[in-house]
């Protein structure tokens, strides 16, 4: 009887978190990317004309890396080779161990997308690439994307004055990108996010001249809803190379990132069931020794 009830209790303790996590995934209705990431425009600097018009891109690539991450180098060199003008690439540094760490990037990494591994690539706020093959799979992912951005109207910057318009109710994010020197290697990291500002939806004209610096290489304007995006895995392998030690993930959060936890749960249950006879025998022996000592 003791063994039976211990089995029931231990099985409930282990399986319950997994069931709760699975229920959370099933109840989380996937939100279409067109309902979350609405529009993306860019302006390259220096801008040689008096009125710099925002140019709409076809693809937004958000790369999350770190200078201490050895596997990141090959991927970063590949990303630097992307020169298409209809692609917006943002190089995020969400690790506090980096000199170029940006808190806004960490918030996007941990809070918005709820990522764990570095390096990781998010494509159009909808698809997630992780693992060793993400660089090779990026081109295929971009080719298969059928996203059409819209929502920002008549965006321009003239003499540091931003003018924009939208029919949406959401605020405008502006990401400032610069070329930053790698902390350990003798190379530059292009398109690195060095700052971000939010323009209230009701503010359609804003002076950002003091915010734009001489080292600014590109401004990326993102119109995104407040809905939590549901990332689709685009990778053949579902894990990354390095875990961001600073991310504070709960057990249920970890389950949300990987749908293969069933095998781990079953393994734990089997192992504990195998240990139960030994634990019960030990407990009986302990009681016998205590009884004889009395």
List keywords for this structure.
five-stranded antiparallel sheet; 294 residues; alpha+beta; five-stranded mixed sheet; 34% helix
Shape: elongated
State the distance separating the first and last CA atoms.
26 Å
Estimated share of beta-strand residues: 25-35%
What is the number of strand segments?
A: 16
Write the H/E string, N to C: HHEEEEHEHEEEHEEEEEEEEHH
- Order of strands side by side in the largest beta sheet? 3-1-14-11-12
Radius of gyration: 25 Å
**Considering DSSP H and I runs of 4 or more, what fraction of the residues is helical?**
25-40%
> Uncertain segments of ≥5 residues (pLDDT<50)?
13-32, 245-261
Total number of helical segments? 7
Largest sheet: 5 strands, antiparallel
Q: What is the overall pLDDT average?
A: 81
Structural class of the secondary structure composition?
alpha+beta
Can you characterise this structure?
The chain is of the alpha+beta class and 294 residues long. Helix content is 34%, strand content 29%. The chain has seven helices and 16 strands. The chain has helices spanning 2-27, 33-36, 72-80, 103-112, 134-144, 251-257, 261-293, and strands at residues 37-44, 51-53, 55-56, 59-64, 87-92, 117-118, 120-123, 127-129, 152-158, 161-166, 172-181, 188-199, 205-207, 216-224, 232-233, 242-243. It has a five-stranded antiparallel beta sheet with strand order 3-1-14-11-12. Strands 5-4-7-8-15 form a five-stranded mixed beta sheet. A four-stranded antiparallel beta sheet has the order 2-9-10-13, with no helix packed on it. Helix 1 packs across helix 6 and helix 1 packs antiparallel against helix 7 (261-293). The longest helix has 33 residues, at 261-293. The radius of gyration is 25 Å and the shape is elongated. Residues 13-32 and 245-261 have low confidence and may be disordered.
């Amino acid at each position: 009887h003791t063994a039976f009830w211990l089995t029931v209790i231990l099985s409930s303790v282990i399986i319950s978190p997994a069931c709760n996590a699975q229920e959370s995934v099933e109840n989380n209705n996937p939100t279409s990317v067109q309902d979350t990431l609405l529009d993306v425009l860019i302006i390259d600097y220096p801008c040689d004309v008096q009125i710099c018009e925002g140019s709409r891109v076809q693809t937004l690539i958000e790369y999350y890396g770190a200078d201490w991450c050895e596997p990141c180098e090959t991927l970063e060199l590949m990303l630097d080779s992307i020169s298409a003008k209809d692609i917006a690439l943002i190089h995020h540094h969400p690790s506090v161990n980096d000199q170029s760490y940006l808190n806004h990037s960490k918030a996007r990494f941990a809070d918005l997308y709820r990522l764990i591994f570095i390096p990781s690539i998010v494509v159009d706020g909808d698809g997630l690439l992780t693992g060793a093959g993400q660089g090779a799979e990026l081109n295929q992912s971009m080719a298969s994307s059928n996203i059409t951005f819209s929502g920002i109207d008549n965006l321009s910057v003239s003499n540091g004055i931003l003018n924009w318009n939208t029919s949406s109710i959401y605020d405008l994010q502006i990401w400032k990108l610069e070329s930053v020197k790698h902390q350990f290697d003798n190379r530059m990291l292009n398109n690195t996010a060095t700052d971000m500002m939010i323009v209230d939806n009701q503010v359609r004209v804003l002076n950002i001249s003091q915010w734009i610096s001489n080292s600014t290489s590109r401004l990326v304007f993102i119109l995104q809803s407040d809905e939590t995006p549901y990332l689709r895995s685009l990778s053949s392998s579902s894990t990354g190379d390095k875990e961001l030690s600073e991310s504070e993930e709960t057990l249920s959060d970890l389950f949300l990132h990987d749908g293969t936890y069933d095998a781990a749960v079953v393994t734990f249950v089997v192992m504990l069931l195998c240990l139960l006879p030994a634990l019960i025998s030990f407990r009986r022996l302990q009681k016998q020794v205590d009884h004889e000592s009395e």
